[in-house]
Amino acid sequence: MVVEKATKTINRLESMHPLRAKVNETYLKSVEAIQAGKPAVWGMLNFYYGDPILKAMDIEVVYPENYGAIAAATGAAQQYLDRADAEGFPTHLCGYSLTTLGYASRMMKELKGQIPPEAPIGGMPKPLFLMSSAAICDARYKWFQALGRYMDVPVWPLEAPIPGIKEFFIEGYYDRMVKLGVKHLRDFVAFVEGMVGKKMDWDKLDKTADLMIEVNRVWHEVNELRKARPCPMHSRDFWSAMPAALFLAGDLEDSLRLYQDMYKEVKDRVNSHVGAIPDEKYRLVFAELPPWHSLAFFDKLAERGWNFVIESVGYHPPIPMDLSKVSDPLERITKFSLQFLVGYYEDARKQNVLGGTTAYPYLKYAREWKCDGALLHPLISCRSASTHLPYVSDMLMEKLKVPSLSIEGDIVDLRLFNPEDALAKAEPFEETMEHYRKMRKQAGFNW
Amino acid sequence: MSDRNKGLSKAREIYLNCPQRARELKAAGKKIIGYPCVYVPLEMLTALDIVPYRTCGNMKEPVTEADRALPHSFCPIMRSCLDCALKGKNDFLDGMVTIHSSDPQEKTARVWESYTNYPYFHFIDMPITVRPEALEYFKSQLNDFRKTLEAFTGKKLSKDKLEAAIKSHNQQRTLVRELYELTKSSPPRISGTEIVQVVKALTSLPVVEGNDLLTETISEVKNRTAGPEKKSARLLIWSSTLDDTDVMQVFEAKANVVMNESCGGIRAYRAGVKFTADPLEGLADYYLNEITCARTFRQATLGETRKDYARDLQSRFGYLKGIIKEWKINGAIMLLVRYCDPFAFEMPSLKDYFNSLGIPSTYIEYDYTTGALAPLRTRVEAFLETIS
User: What is the pTM assigned to this prediction?
Assistant: First the structure.
């Protein structure tokens, strides 16, 4: 059941709106591109690896994961979920993937390749090819392979090495990852050239890579500002703004300017002690993706003084690194992408936290963003994003005495999330957070 | 009457108490290293005189300890594996080697390493494609594995020893294939349940002992007069893992399971490791290319710029065509362990492939608990009725 529209308690950033509009525009652009005979591609979130190559080749890219969230938020997803179910896909598969599979089935089987008229924000046109990714979960390459049932379009699966924390420090490991990445991307460039029938403009790729890195640096700085008390920017704004950096959705020069505007607005709020909610009583980290279909839930929590000040690492930009001396754009892209995966490894190893890419950063976040609690949102249909959460909860309590509240739900299927039940847990959890504030003080922590 | 210490009876005993032999070997001074997935190159352990021991789950054991480390909606086999480890059921292990063969394997490896304290723990990363650069990267991963094993044992992994180990493991693969030859007849001379016992026993024994067990078993089966009864259907089971006799017996109550295409059956034994100048190259090629698990992304032509669904299906499932013909299979069951995404995504396409071959098939899901057996039985019986 969806939470009824409530009073909007969260003080949203003005600068978020034009940024979000640019993201939404990418769908319309992809439709226009197809109508104008230009290529459009369906891409999987790949953590900066393949996107700059497509951007430099002037290929419009839409992201079915992001579209799945849009379909969920607009209420359009259910018919596609039902259709995927009827096609024989198990219902416990990733909700985004089922949405896309149902969508593709409807588009190709019923509408002979035309965009379904009910599809939100213009829909996704039939792609020239699919770019999948091995990063983070199995679904994100198996799902595009499964689309072969509906569309005879080729798939390029992007490799994404993921080392263990200790293993990463074996001599030569990083260099071998870079070697794999550069060779793989070089072949990907050749594949894309073959698909679109034109050669890569390497100068343009060079510039695109730089812009991508700069966009993400500014976005990183925006999020650093959220350490302030009261926190000037809520997770709602983070989620609205993230696709422009994470998926590189929209024009990168526009995105850079808009993130710079956002930085200014957030900085102004910090200077004037303006928070993202009227009365910040509790600062929380939100773990994993939100229930897109029930976002008004956060306004209810904001009324109680809950400010969400940071989110899962999987959606945050990599820790900035200087890549200006790396002349090969493919190597620069590879290293930037690897930084997302291994950027926290040195710290994690020092602290002997072996839980992997997605687990350690919560400790850093809770400590530096001074969180009173963690709201964990295990996603029934996104296991990869949820597997580490019990471990994270254990670790936050053991190392920092930060308690967690776990509320199961889903990114797409609204039937799996019960906002009333979740809100009923808020008051007792406030008592828990108060208790552990005292415990942390006794243990010598500074928040 | 069969000898309890040989062949099928021995396999059954080991199956019922897998850790027993490992404990004996440990007491005799051997090092035992656990592995949760057939993608771990066991040859490298054998070559260093380490006994590989597969850390399986146990569907009869309720998961309790793993609840604090893994969510409920997660691969139930890995939850069960970790649960057994956290309960100390594998306390004889000197270490663990884990591999990125699927997302649950990778995620569980992190948790496993964090919640246990073995003297040795290693994680092997594994690419998803069979592209040349992926193969080269995987080979480098095996080289890192070699380095850590050498540091752990204080021994050098020589080429001669590795080649000898490859030879022994290849012999095991040949013997398992020979065992499966015995299911070609009608009725089959060995049941699917018996094979599950043999294969699971193999994964808890040193390779040489396993080969002896296989040799005895093959001889016994060839010479016995009383084998499985002929049933109405000859089934192929396609699954990630089918390593429990209770599950197998659900199918075998009314059918002959002549092929268990899972890592509790033939999957890890269908091919052999090639001898290459650098043995790691042969190993990398075998483990990345030859094991036909849904986790690997395959396509008709590497980097293809055109796609044809029929050719795509052939590249992913083509190996099943020969099996269906040679084993005279007349029904296929796609058995999905809940939350196993690589296999779950395959279901409609594999059904398309079976349809193209004229083989009736059904998709059945279970959650790796004994509570799932009754509904599983109902589904199986319904399917068998439709094909009888």
Answer: 0.94
